[in-house]
Amino acid sequence: VTPELMIKACTFHTKNLVKTHFCTWRDIAIPHVNEDEILAEKMEKAITHYNYKLQKSSFHYWHSLAENQRRKLKEVLWRIQQMLYCHKLKVVLTNWRDKARSKTKMREDELILKHERQLKRWKSKLKFRVTTEETSSPELSSSEISFVGDLPECDISLLPEKAISQIFLYLSLRDIVICGQVCHAWMLMIQTRSLWNTIDFSMVKNIIADKDIVTTLHRWRLNVLRLNFRGCILRPRTLRSIGHCRNLQELNVSDCSTLTDELMRYISEGCPGVLYLNLSNTTITNRTMRLLPRHFYNLQNLSLAYCRKFTDKGLQYLSLGNGCHKLICLDLSGCTQITDAAMEMLSAKCHYLHILDVSGCVLLTDQILADLRMGCRQLRSLKMLYCRLISREAAKKMAAAVQRQEHSCNDPPRWFGYDYEGKPLAKHHGATPHKEDLEPIVRDLTYGSEEEAV
């Protein structure tokens, strides 16, 4: 670098420093002439910005308030529309019901008027015929004259369907079938669905064929609500047809010697809505007991009296998983194999139990009464006849918790078929309960707090 260039650089730097510091000093030392105008301009900008922020905040609050009001108005409008729709629907249904009732009443009045006219016409014909017969043959008696002529023109098939149903409800299954064989009109009358809601095959078990039972169940499978096969000895195919009755609510297959676990599997899979089930004196085992809680969720009444093929494990199935926790009535009379362990688990789950019968369960002890007091607090009726291991003191203590109780510490009578240990006795022909077996039952009855012993 030459000295001339150094001098030029120093001179330029010195001028630049002087200019910078002079301008800064001038700005500080010499006040601006228009400072008030600048401050006024800044204040105006600040006020404008503040007003903008305030308007934005107010507008946001107003917008949220307006949205809430709009939402509430929409909800109120929707409710009003729903109420108006329900009101219109009620008006339409009411008018339809009134019109249907008026038409039905008009039809019934027309039928009644028609029957009255037929009856008057028949009476006039009969009176005219009786007068003619008296003039032609006065020796005929009045009883003979009443049967002269044709049959009356009044036909039962012309009655209203409700009246026909009420008439046929008083007939048994056998009588209904016989009525269906009278004529075609009577055969059509027995096709009323309400007549086949309840079918009792136990009354005709000795005269009806299996194929007729299968045909009847297949024909009315959607209308049958109650079936009774008590004491019927039927083929497996016949009992399997019960599974087609999807709407079945009550089933009684007690004393059916041909009922097996495999048949109960078909029935349970096809009839899940059963509320009442009677399996008394059958050969079911733990396999059937395992099916009951799996398919019959709403079972309320169960009878297992004298079913001695299942064990404690089978009874415990009723309380496992979903189980039969809605049981109201349970009959275990004559089940000599039941012990306290099964009853303990059952009482811990079946809280709605009202009626319990353990008569003849000779292995039960006082422990079940303590379990019942803790688990089954809605128990109202308890029957413990011939339970020799349940003491009278425990029974008296339990009587305060139930409304009706029967207890007896005596050994089972001979006609029960087993001894005090539950072992079967030798069969005696003509075995009937004796007077000395029945008297201890009456003496040992214990009552609840609302009843007194006589």
From TrEMBL:
Residues 153-199 form the F-box domain. The keyword Repeat does not apply. It holds the Pfam family F-box-like. SUPFAM superfamilies: RNI-like. It comes from the Eukaryota. Keywords: Leucine-rich repeat, Ubl conjugation pathway. GO terms for biological process: SCF-dependent proteasomal ubiquitin-dependent protein catabolic process. GO terms for cellular component: SCF ubiquitin ligase complex. Gene3D superfamilies: Ribonuclease Inhibitor. InterPro entries: F-box_dom, FBXL15_LRR, Leu-rich_rpt_Cys-con_subtyp, LRR_dom_sf. This is F-box and leucine rich repeat protein 13. The lineage of its organism: Eukaryota, Metazoa, Chordata, Craniata, Vertebrata. The gene is FBXL13.
